TrEMBL record:
One GO MF term attached to the UniProt entry: oxidoreductase activity
Protein name as catalogued: FAD-binding molybdopterin dehydrogenase
Cross-referenced PROSITE patterns: FAD_PCMH (PS51387)
Domain FAD-binding PCMH-type stretches: 1-172
Organism: Streptomyces kanamyceticus
Pfam families tied to this protein: FAD_binding_5
Amino acid sequence: MDLTTVMEVRDARRRTSWRPGDGWLGGGTYLFSEPQPHLRRLIDLSRMGWTPLRHLPDGSLEIAATCTIAQLSRHARDMDVTAAPLFEQCCRAFLASFKIWNMATVGGNLCNALPAGPMISLTAALDGSCLLLAQDGSTRRVPVTGFVTGAGRKVLREGELLRSVTVPARSLACRTAFRQVSLYGLGRSGALVIGAVDPDDGSFALTVTAATVRPFRLWFPLPPTAAELRAAIARSVADADWFDDIHGLPAWRRHMAYRLAEEIRRELEEAQEPAQAEAPGQGDTR
């Protein structure tokens, strides 16, 4: 779609003063999909030259905001970490064409802050943190679960930029389980739930997205029972937090989130039992 109100596109490598009507341009798959009457100038990030994915010395993974879904998918196939399959599962949750995969960016998906954003699901479930860059050059870090505050809402300040998302090494070592459901065979996610078990201390995390207006990540020191998990979701997600649009009513989304959460709990519990049985000299830790 032509953005008829945009008068100028500037290269982000050229320093310029931020002004009303400016907007960051990443892949542009959302930006050019509908009118943007508030925009007058786009600051293009495509030539910044940021390394799409980088493994840091501490074992964590840094994902540049300009990393495309195609680049993330290709990289994940070669990663020798337990959580690697989750990356492809979340990439596939886009249900988008190869053209979108090659243009849409991880940062754009987070900054749109749509409940069904699968990169929000991925990075929130893996306890990721966002590096934000202000116009004056200062930076701050915000957890992904705190970056998105509601449907279409995020904590970015005027002119602030999402530079990257970092996933800690400990999260990459987690065993994960993924569930997604839609009202339609190829529809937008109505609920997307991810579970993760930390191999170091046996802790369990459940992340609920798509069904809710923002990501909810619940953490348990030990894998919960079915009743404990259900009660924790009920305490954490208020009635107003269940998303409501044409892709699913709140009551249906709530029902599916509970159902998928229990499936994940059982899957990860069953996966843990053989591992514990094979470990020599390991007693009952529960």
